Amino acid sequence: MFIGDAKKILIIRLSSLGDILLSTPLIRSLKNKLPGCEIDFILRNEFEDLMKLNPNIRKIYKYDNSRYTEQDILNSVISENYDLIIDLQNNLRTNGFTREAHTAVVKFRKHHLDKFLLVKFKINRLKNLSPVPVRYAEQFEDLQIDDEGLDLQTDKTPSNELKSKTNLIGLCPGAKHFTKRWPKENFISLGYLLINNGFNVVLFGGILDKELCSEISKEINSLNLCNENNILQTTADLKLCKAVYTNDSGLMHVAAAVKIPVIAFFGSTVKEFGFYPYKSKSFVLEDKELSCRPCSHIGRNKCPKKHFKCMKNLTPEIAFEKLKEININ
Questions:
Q1: What is the dihedral of CA 265, 289, 313, 268, to 10 degrees?
Q2: Parallel, antiparallel, or unpaired for β 282-285 and 84-87?
Q3: DSSP secondary structure string for all residues of 267-302
Q4: pLDDT of residue 123
Q5: Where are the domains of the chain?
Q6: Class of domain 8-137
Q7: pTM surpassing 0.85?
Q8: pLDDT tens track for 182-210
Q9: Of 61, 166, 213, 308, whose CB neighbour count within 10 A is largest?
Q10: Under a CB-based contact definition with an 8 Å cutoff, are residues 59 and 4 in contact?
Q11: For residues 141 and 207, what is the distance between their CA atoms, to the nearest angstrom?
Q12: Do domains 8-137 and 160-323 have the same CATH topology?
């Protein structure tokens, strides 16, 4: 499809943290091509901070999973008379926003069949696929995506606890699903290696990661900055790190957005799905020899083979050695 000279564009990506951040190169590239266009965005209300300071967004619609806000948003969408709606979520709920809009709609192709074939039968038809931000833009024949990476603006200043610290390395041990979490014991061992080599360790996470971060912090001499999902504060703090270790999680994309070198642990998921650190100095640590990978494209609550080798084979020593390959001076 061609963008043409659209004056008003609506983008829909309700969730989640990483997926929303991965849409920012598309937004910026649209604005670069059409400087006078107005771009609005629909997302779930808990992710508002990801976009509220983005200079390329005119208005944010906050969706709270209720039929009242859904109807309010639909009424606004109809009244705004958008020239183009870009549905990056492409599910039954977002179809409700686009069905009655009576305008041009572009829906993101999710490659459900290809993901199924890779997970269930290890038939890989995704290996030549572009990363997700590029795939977002490839839907338009007349749009050239830029080379600037992800956007995330913050109006917070770094936490006071960090001001006297140097040689900071961030650890982000959380992830929604068990099979996407590098074992706690490995993070603890890696923490010791970092501290013994002159680094200061900082732990990051949100509400769901508090217990995990607390347990790790009790074992190693570290600063625990896990918070109440204050993503803008986490963003400001991450900027002071020389490198960050993460799982395949939202904070991986936050670190990439603020241009911090990322070392990411991939267990049940693989890079072919397109959700890896985008346009940042990064290493994805994964065991490519395991025939059971990937066992999911989003993660599972337990290892179906009961050995969890995809993560356990990625030792703290391997992770520490990768740090030496990144220029963090």
A1: 40
A2: unpaired
A3: SS--GGGS-S--SSSEEEE--TT-TT--S-SS--SS
A4: 97
A5: 8-137, 160-323
A6: alpha beta
A7: yes
A8: 999 999 999 999 999 999 999 999 999 99
A9: 213
A10: no
A11: 41
A12: yes
